[in-house]
User: Which sequence fits this backbone?
């Protein structure tokens, strides 16, 4: 888990063979715990989009509109405008999702997403979430709670990694200090 | 590999962005042509569009309580029809009576004002030696015709009103019910490149224009009520102002038009007040009972100024603070176009439409500016 990006990687992945839109949605943490009728409601408001190989879904810096779930195909997430393998921070496949932070606000996207194979995406957008909250608040609350859980999980992973980095940093600093003190002793002798 | 545009000449024609945009543009032009071709149809759809922004929160509110959307729309529309009928029954005697009386006497009133102004202009012209040009008289008669048409709402014909009554409720029902599907179909058809941008634009327009239209309605209601309360107080202090309810409605309605509206709305009020309190008492049949008095006219000017003060100091910052501010030039253009097409009703409905167009232009240009691929 530690190899994938805490923000862009799918840290929630579950393996299954079901392929319908409802089945794909049910596996996504944003829609977990929804009843059959609620999933049907969501199914009615999502957009199905088809992208050909090399086509850009969004670019870093553009205002975000919502999240995508990969129904089929592969999506490369890259930092900056370059979309080659060298700049890849995550490679997402069937059943993975990305861009869910844009459900909260239209803050600029923090990475670029590009299709690396013919891809079919299920899009769930902020305007639809707002409409759900205003028309069926019960479902809206469930979705928002799920989103909070995702954010908390990502935050915990980020926190863990930061903690690891701090420990490594401390270790390196101690090593450096030890080395510099031995070097100073050697110089003195 | 840098970002490549969604061009792919190998993909079939119907999937190419240029083709999709071309089809959408063609459909839009075709729709507008049909709407313009059938008289009253365009204005009916525009009115229904404005009503969608006004009533969709009420429909959402009912839907939130577990009812289906069609039932929620039906309830809102029935409530609307019921309110209109009840208000009509309660106020028709008062307001329609005042309107009919006002309409029948408008010529008399304006001729009185006309005579008075002509007399004053004549005096002025002769004192400056300009009486041969007759400029003042020509300007006055031109303005008189325009004001008469505006005050009596004669821009919209009976046929147009009938078309509205037939089409607007139907269009409103289907826009409220299927507006979401129409939006999905239109946005879904857009090329991938403009897809997210159009979703963001739609959300912002919905938010900004919806709050602008609702705020304008509340603003006009409060200003109208302020004016009515003020006229009532003036009536208690002096003599009750003729047609006060009708005139307060006119003041409130015209207040929807920014910048120009308050001035246009004040014209009939001042016209009636000057005739009633200053000119009529000069007639022999009133002599001795009531003396010509500029005091109530001044009080009415104060009432109108107070209503504007409430509007600009309290209502505008609170209600319209976060919504769109339509540019004065766009207001002027919209009002002229609206007046040309549908008279006074066109002037009023042109403002929410102008706000939609201004927000659309601004958001599309902003969206394209932020587009990075």
Assistant:
């Amino acid at each position: 888990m530690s190899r994938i990006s805490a923000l862009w990687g799918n840290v929630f992945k579950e393996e299954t063979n079901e392929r319908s839109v409802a089945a794909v949605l049910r596996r996504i943490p944003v829609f977990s715990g929804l009843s059959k009728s609620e999933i049907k409601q969501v199914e009615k408001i999502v957009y199905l989009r088809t992208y050909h190989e090399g086509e850009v879904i969004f670019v870093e810096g553009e205002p975000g509109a919502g999240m995508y779930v990969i129904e089929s195909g592969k999506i490369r997430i890259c930092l900056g405008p370059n979309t080659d393998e060298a700049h890849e921070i995550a490679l997402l496949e069937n059943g993975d999702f990305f861009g869910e932070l844009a459900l909260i606000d239209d803050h600029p996207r923090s990475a670029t997403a590009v299709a690396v194979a013919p891809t079919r995406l299920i899009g769930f957008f902020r305007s639809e979430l707002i409409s759900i909250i205003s028309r069926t608040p019960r479902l809206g609350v469930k979705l928002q709670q799920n989103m909070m859980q995702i954010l908390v999980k990502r935050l915990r992973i980020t926190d863990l990694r930061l903690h690891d980095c701090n420990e490594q940093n401390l270790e390196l600093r101690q090593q450096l200090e030890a080395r510099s003190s031995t070097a100073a002793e050697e110089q003195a002798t | 590999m840098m970002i490549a545009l969604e061009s792919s000449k190998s993909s079939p024609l119907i999937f190419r962005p240029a083709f999709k945009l071309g089809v959408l543009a063609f459909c839009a032009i075709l729709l507008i042509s049909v709407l313009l071709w059938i008289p009253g149809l365009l204005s009916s759809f525009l009115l229904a569009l404005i009503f969608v922004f006004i009533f969709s929160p009420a429909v959402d509110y009912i839907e939130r309580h577990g009812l289906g959307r069609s039932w929620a729309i039906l309830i809102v529309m029935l409530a609307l029809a019921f309110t209109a009928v009840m208000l009509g029954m309660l106020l028709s005697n008062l307001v329609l009576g005042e309107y009919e009386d006002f309409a029948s006497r408008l010529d008399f009133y304006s001729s009185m004002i006309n005579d008075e102004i002509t007399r004053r202009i004549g005096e002025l012209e002769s004192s400056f030696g300009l009486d041969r040009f007759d400029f003042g008289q020509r300007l006055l008669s031109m303005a008189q015709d325009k004001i008469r048409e505006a005050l009596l709402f004669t821009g919209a014909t009976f046929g147009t009103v009938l078309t509205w009554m037939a089409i607007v409720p139907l269009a409103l029902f289907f826009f409220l019910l299927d507006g979401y599907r129409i939006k999905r179909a239109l946005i879904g058809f857009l090329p991938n490149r403009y897809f997210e941008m159009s979703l963001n634009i739609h959300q912002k327009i919905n938010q900004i224009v919806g709050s602008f239209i609702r705020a304008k309605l509340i603003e006009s209601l409060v200003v109208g009520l302020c004016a009515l309360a003020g006229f009532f107080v003036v009536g208690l202090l002096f003599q009750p102002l003729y047609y006060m309810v009708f005139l307060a409605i006119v003041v409130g309605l015209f207040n929807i038009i920014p910048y120009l509206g308050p001035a246009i709305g004040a014209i009939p009020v001042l016209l009636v007040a000057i005739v009633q309190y200053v000119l009529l008492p000069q007639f022999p049949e009133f002599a001795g009972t009531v003396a010509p008095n500029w005091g109530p006219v001044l009080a009415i000017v104060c009432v109108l100024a107070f209503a504007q003060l409430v509007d600009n100091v309290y209502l505008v910052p609170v209600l319209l603070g976060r919504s769109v501010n339509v540019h004065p030039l766009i207001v002027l253009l919209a009002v002229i176009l609206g007046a040309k097409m549908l008279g006074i009703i066109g002037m009023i409905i042109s403002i929410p439409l102008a706000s939609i167009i201004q927000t659309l232009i601004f958001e599309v240009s902003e969206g394209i500016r932020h587009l990075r691929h």
Remarks:
- Chain A has a mean pLDDT of 86.
